[in-house]
Q: What sequence folds into this?
């Protein structure tokens, strides 16, 4: 879930299937909420940023999210979440987040 303005939220659904590898340790960071009797797992914004950086798409959107959320992003959590990926991917993820304006 990423706030885009004060008027609405954009919700992006991910599934841990085939081409999107989400380590269990990241999934365990999700909060569980109920909406209308439906149970939903909501990842922290830091996990969303890491997933977007790993995907390598929507670099402009990633930069906009970082800009909007910069003061509320837990850098230590971002670094922890990056650490759950294979070593060869970690530097790429960090570089993409740096390019988006995150100081890690």
A:
């Amino acid at each position: 879930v990423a706030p885009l303005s004060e008027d609405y939220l954009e919700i992006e659904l991910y599934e841990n299937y085939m081409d999107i590898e989400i380590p269990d340790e990241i999934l365990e960071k999700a909060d569980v909420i109920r909406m209308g009797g439906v149970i939903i797992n909501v990842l922290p914004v830091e996990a969303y940023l890491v997933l977007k950086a790993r995907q390598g798409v929507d670099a402009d959107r990633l930069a906009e999210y970082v800009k909007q959320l910069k003061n509320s992003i837990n850098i230590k959590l971002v670094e922890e979440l990056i650490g759950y990926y294979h070593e060869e991917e970690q530097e790429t993820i960090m570089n993409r987040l740096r390019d988006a304006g995150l100081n890690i």
Summary: The chain has a mean pLDDT of 86.
